[in-house]
Amino acid sequence: MTTNYVTRDNFGMYANKDDGPGPELMGANTLLGNDVYNADGEDLGDIQEFMLDMASGKIAYAVLSFGGLLGMGDKLFAVPWAALTLDTENHRFTLNVPKVALNDAPGFDKANWPTMSDKTWASGVHKFYGTPYSAD
Q1: CATH number corresponding to 28-129
Q2: Integer angstrom CA distances of residue 84 from 35, 59, 75, 111, 131
Q3: What are the CB-based long-range contacts (under 8 Å, 24+) for 125-134?
Q4: Which value, to the nearest 10 degrees, does the dihedral of the CA atoms of residues 101, 106, 108, 112 take?
Q5: Is residue 129 classed as helix, strand or coil in its secondary structure?
Q6: Which one, of 1, 92, 88, lies nearest residue 46 by Cα?
Q7: How far apart (Å, rounded) are the C-alpha atoms in residues 84 and 59?
Q8: Residue-wise pLDDT tens digits, 42-97
């Protein structure tokens, strides 16, 4: 079953397509579990978590889960928020990365999260996804 923000709308935020907060403002819980595809229609995984920059109040990364079976052996990727586009027609996110490229993407597993505040780590992640990074 496809998981998307419409199916996770516990409070009826998106019940009326002509009213409500989205897609400019979205409930974070409704975005958890959303599918992520690339422009070629390849399923890249789903969003498991959001990492907030507490100084700016903005989402820094969406944590993408890819691979594995039934949640076992999944590889996690911190994808810069700027690298994702919300596809409101298909109720999912788009990430312009070929599926095979995720084999070389900076990733981690559930037991070994990186220090995401490390500037060298962050710079490498942003470089991989082609998004700007400011260490300020």
Answers
A1: 2.30.30.240
A2: 11, 11, 18, 25, 10
A3: 125/61, 125/78, 125/80, 126/80, 128/104, 129/79, 129/80, 129/83, 129/95, 129/97, 130/83, 131/80, 131/82, 131/83, 132/82, 133/80
A4: 170
A5: helix
A6: 92
A7: 11
A8: 999 999 999 999 999 999 999 999 876 555 568 999 999 999 999 988 889 999 99
